[in-house]
Amino acid sequence: MRLTIDKSIKEIPYYPKAALYGGDSGWVRLSSNENPNGPSPKAVESIVESVFALNRYPESEYELKSALAGKYALKPENIIIGNGSNEIIETSFRALRYEGKDEALLPAPSFAFYPIAAKIYGYRPKIVPLRDLKIEPEAMADEIGERTRIVILNNPNNPTGTIFEDAQFRRFLERLPDEILVVVDEAYAEFVDSPAFPRSTDYIADHPVLILRTFSKAYGLAGLRVGYGIAGQEIVSYLERTKQPFSVNMMALVAAKAALTDERYLKTVLEGNRSGKSYLYRALTEMGVPFYPSEANFFLIKVGPGADDVTKRLFEAKVLVRSMSAYDLPDFIRVTVGTADENRAFIEALRRSLP
Ligand SMILES: Cc1ncc(COP(=O)(O)O)c(C=O)c1O
Known about the structure:
355 residues; alpha/beta; Aspartate Aminotransferase, domain 1; Aspartate Aminotransferase, domain 2; 2 domains; seven-stranded mixed β-sheet; four-stranded antiparallel β-sheet; 12 helices; 37% helix; binds pyridoxal-5'-phosphate
């Protein structure tokens, strides 16, 4: 190839994407923590209306920012919109570049994209293991060093579904030295029922905290790719400088804004998730299969040694779940809560797939 590639890029795993289950509708997709309910009808309607303006660049970012600012009682200048929250993870690494500060503190197991983004932008990931499958913010603070520039916390944490609480977050922030950005990825926050979950927007005025949210999960718009970040205005201004202009397309912007107003849809999604989780917990308890209760729309199930085999057998039954062997949890699978029918199909297939 006559090109020498940097080691940090070579280390990033590469999975060529094969069209394994593309056009076939028979699959039960419980592997990517998607919303099983279809998109909000209001979002769909807004997309239909927007298509006649597709000859224009998407100028409506500010309208979505204003709508979000209203929701959080903040200013539009506190909000950054991204092509999925993934784009904002990348943007934060780009904007925070600073000589001599090249370490990113990351929890593990957690969302697989964090170490990838860190490496792409020349940071050295420093991994802090979970404790009892939970992110312990103070254990992260213990690992902060001279070169630390970014700390990522995921709340609820993917893949464990566990949360850290407001008091824990406050103690962590009190110990935080200067020159460090704290990214709090709250992709699944809408699903949380615990009253102890941090109101993290309360901290952005006094701390370098960037909160990430997404329309991919509770709002059911994963296919459109739209997420957002919330932070102090100065932080947002630097993130904006390093982000592609118009990175979020027009249909995504209008659909996200419409989805925000669709309270009925969100209520249906959250109730479906709660009742789906109760059903799955009950069925697994009856089967004697251990699992970890979660605050999100997915949870871990301990299937014993051979999670890869169980995942493969479920795949043969056209049920997609995620084996956790690549996450250093070789006894576990992660399953997303589906529709009532999908949850039943999963339990039936699991009965036949366990060793
Ligand atoms: C913890 C976490 N953060 C971010 C994302 C990415 O979300 P988006 O679709 O907004 O890029 C995911 C997607 O699975 C996730 O699990």
